[in-house]
Amino acid sequence: MRPVRSIWLAGPEVWLPDFEIQASRQRALCLDSGFTGLTPDPIPRGAGEVGELEARELYAARMARLRQADAGVVNLTPWRGPSVETGAAFEAGVLAGLGRPIFGYLNVADESQAEYVDRVESGVGAQRDEAGVWRDGEGCVVENFGLPETVMLWAEVRRLFVIITPDLTHDLTGLELCLDALALYAE
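The structure assignment produced for this chain is given below.
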């Protein structure tokens, strides 16, 4: 097993207006647990739009940093819909492909949002058909394994914590629990 020293921190935080503050809090928690927290560079927020060249440079830099990580902690909190932020899902997939252990957490406002199908139902509308299968407004099947996230993300994560909190974007209880679990894993 590869020693765990550095942890990639994936999630929607990069989009927050106070990203640098939140990333500093995350890295400090990692240091307190004996790890180096690797966070993405901020998204350029210039007055004008950034172009394809800047996007490719950002992608290359992020991929290089992902490859440096010994493990990952993914914030699976729903972002702009019922599912995880798409970049975080991609980064979890990259880490899985690299054979790195992944731990995750999901912040929800109340227990009724703890399962994926429930978030789809309340967020975009879903209902059971005559056979009891959950379907969205387009008639497509909604995954329903009774899990907090889709099976492909859930199954890869070594430990997934669901946190009930009023502060979905800033509560780091899940990160702290993941770091504790990672410390046990790394022994």
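Interim note for the steering committee: The chain has a mean pLDDT of 93. Strands lie at 6-10, 36-38, 71-75, 102-108, 126-128, 134-136, 157-164.
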